[in-house]
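We both want to read C-alpha cells more fluently, so let's practise on a single case. Would you supply a protein for us yourself, any chain you care to pick? Would you write everything just below, so we can both look at the same thing?
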Amino acid sequence: MLSMLKSRRAGATALAAAVAFTCLAGAAAPADAQTTSGTVAQASGQGEGHASGEGKNGPDHVFVIMMENHGYDQVIGNTADAPFMNSLAQRYNTATNYHGVTHPSLPNYLARISVSSQGIWDDCKAGADVTCAPEEFVPGSSDPGATGSLTPAQASSASSTPHMFSGKTIVDELENKGLSWKAYMESLPSAGSQVEYAPTIGSTTVKLYAQKHNPFMYFSNINYPGSPRLQNIVPQENNLKNGLASGTVPNFVWISPNQCHDMHGVSPSGAALVGMPQCGYPDSGLDHGVIQLGDSYVKKTVQQIMDSPTWKTTKSSIVLAWDENDYSGSDGGPGSPVGQNGAVLGGGHAPAIVINSSEGPHKTTNEVSDHYTLLSTIEHMWHLGCLANTCSPTSSGTFEELFR
C-alpha cells in the first residue's frame, strides 16, 4: 500500500503539471473544537437539540455519494480520466477548499455522520471488543507526507478505544425530526450484514464492500441484535433503482460505492478475480484505471437519480465528496484535530461537488471546509440541531449557498 501511495503521488504531480490547474491550499485548523480564522460562513449552533438559526427551507432529499482517496488536482482538471465529474464541477456548485478531517478513511466516515472522528486513526472493523493502534501520524505510518504526529496521550487513547461508539449520529437527528434515511452500500451481501469485506469467491475475499466505508455499523444504537435500523442499511444493487422509480427513497440517502467504483482500488489479483483489472493498484504512477471506473460509476448513478421522478418533482440535492486526499499531505478543515506542537492532523485537500434539482447559477466557495461543514449545512437546512463539532461555529461552519 505504501509503494502504491508513493506512486500515486508521483503520478498526481505529473498530472497537475500537465493540466496546469490552480487551486487554493487548505488553511489548517486546530482540533476538535478549535479552529483558525478563514473558515466558512458560521452557523450559530446552540447545543444538541437546538436548531441553529432560521436557515432556508431545506431540500426534500439529499443524496450523499462518498468517494475515496484522491486529492483535488487528481480529479478536478483531469478531464482525460474523469470527464463526467469535471463536467459536473463546471456546471454545478463546488467547494474548492474542501478537506478530509484526518487520515485514514474510517475516522472520516465516522465524522461524516457523527461530527466526530471518535478519537481513532485506523481502519479496523466494528466491535465492542475491537481496539487498534493508530495507523497514521505515528512512526512508520503509510502517510510519509504528514506534517505532524499524534501526542502520546492521543496515541494511547486511540489504542484503547473500542470500535463501537455510543454517541448520537445524524440518524438520531433525522428520526427525531420525522425525516427518513437509508444507507445504500454497493456489494453489501444483505441488509445489515456484519461482514467486514465482501464478496468471497472460492477461498478468496475480494474487498469490494468494506465495512470501514459503512460508518453506521460502528454505533451501538444502530448496530445491535434485532435493531430495526439495520434494515435501513441495504445493498445498493436494485434497491436504489427501485426506490427512485417508485418515489420511495428517503429524505437522507447515503451511497457508498464499492472499492472499485469509489476510486479506492483493490489488489491486482482481486481486481482480476472480479473482472475489473482497471481497479488494481498500479505498479507506478497515478491510478488512471480506478479514476475512470469511478467516473463511469458516478455518471451512471447521478444520471439514474436525475432521470427519476423523485428528482424531477422535488427539490433535491446530490453531494459528491471524497473522504480524504491520496495521503500527499495533512492540511485540514475547520474541525481537523491537532497533534504534537499544534500540528494539524488533517485529511488533505479533496473535491466536493453539489448538484441541485432546482438548478441555479454556478457557485463556488473557496473558504476552508470539511465533512463537519457538510453535516452542519444539512443540520441547518433541516433544522436538526447540532452534534459534537457542529455545535461550535468555529469547528464546522456551513456552505448553505451551494444548495441554492
About this structure: Residues 70 and 326 are 5 Å apart (CA to CA).
